[in-house]
Write a structure and sequence with these properties.
This protein has 348 residues and is α/β, with parallel strands linked by helices. It has two domains: 169 residues, Medium-chain alcohol dehydrogenases, catalytic domain (Quinone Oxidoreductase, Chain A, domain 1), CATH 3.90.180; 134 residues, NAD(P)-binding Rossmann-like Domain (Rossmann fold), CATH 3.40.50.720. Helix content is 29%, strand content 25%. It is built from eleven helices and 17 strands. The strands form four sheets. Strands 3, 4, 5, 8, 9, 16 and 17 form a seven-stranded mixed β-sheet that branches. Strands 12-11-10-13-14-15 form a six-stranded parallel β-sheet, with helices on both faces. The two termini are 18 Å apart. The structure holds zinc ion (2 copies). One zinc ion binds next to helix 3.
Length: 348
Amino acid sequence: MTAASEMTCVRCLGDHAVSVGRAAVHAPGPGEMRVRTVTSAICGSDLHHYRTPQTLRRERGWIRYALGHECAGGVDAVGPGVTSPAVGDRVVVFGIVGCGHCVHCRRGEPMFCADAQHFSRHRHGTNAAYLIAPARNAMPLPDDMDFSVGALLSCNVGTAYGALRKAAPSGERMLAVFGLGPVGLSCVMLGRALGAPMLGVDPSPRRRALALEHGALAALDSSDPDLNARLLDLAGGEGLAAAIDTSGQAPARAAAIDALRVHGTFVEVGVGRETTIAPTEQLIFKEVTLRGSWLYKQHEWESLLDCVRRHRIPIARLITHRFRPHDAVEAFQLANSAAAGKILFDWD
Ligand SMILES: [Zn+2]
Ligand SMILES: [Zn+2]
C-alpha cells in the first residue's frame, strides 16, 4: 500500500464553479480495484454538472464527490477476492457502476441496471489522483495505446462508436452528424474509417473546419436557412440514410430528421429534454426509425479497440488542450466556452 492517505481531486460546486481540494484515499474493498489516475478528461456531460445550480448540487449531496467519469491509469491495489485485473495493469474505467448481478450487468450493459451508480453523483469520479471502482469496470488498455487515447476511448470515442454502429455505416450510406464537439468529431472520424461518406453540421466555423480536417465531405452551418436543401443535394436528392445528433438541441434534432430519406435512421446521443418532432410528417410519412444511444456496451470494448487500431484512426488529434489538475478552474471555463476540442488532465 504505497498510496498517500490524501489525494488531490476536482469537485464541482455548480453555478459554473469547480474547486481543487483534497479527499481521503481508501483501500479497495472486496471485489474492488484502486486505479492511480494518469489521464482524465472533461466530457460534455460534466458541463451539465458545471451548469447545475449550486443549491441543487448541495441538496443532493453531489458536491462532496470528485467530478468526472473518463480516465485511464494503472491498477494500484486490488481488494479481497479480485483476481483480475492485477496490480500494475493498464486500464480504462467503464463510466457507470452497476450491481454486477442483474441481467443488464451480466450483459455488460450496467447503464440499464436499476441500482446503477454514476461517478460524480453517487461516488468519487475520475478527476482525482485515485479512483475506486469494481474490478468488473476495468477495461484493459493495450500497451500500444497510451493513457491519453485510453481516456478518450473511455467515453467520448466509445459513445461515438456506440451511436455510429446504430447508424450502420457503409460506403453506400450517406450519414450526417449534427453537433461537432469531441463526440461528433469522433463520429466523423470513425464513420469515414468505416467507409461511410460523412457530413457535419454545427454553428461554429472552427468546429466545421475540424470536421473537414477529420474527414467530413462537407461541413454545413446549422443556422443556414437552406440547410435542408443543401443536405438533400449532398445526399443525392433522396436524403440521408442516417443522422446522428450529439447536440441534444431541439432544432438540430428536427433538422436531422427532416433530412432523412424514406426508411432513414435517426440516432440521438445528445442529452436534451426539449423536442419539436412532428410525428406524422417526420416519422410516419417516411417510416423513420428513432434510436437512442447511451455510451457503449462493455462487450463492445474489444471491437472498439480493433476498429481504432485497424483503421489507424488518429483519435489523439481530438485533444486540443492539456491541463494540470490544479488549473481545473481555467480548464472548465475553457470547456464551457465550447471553443476547444477535447481537454485532458495529466496527473503524473
Ligand atoms: Zn463522458
Ligand atoms: Zn445490475
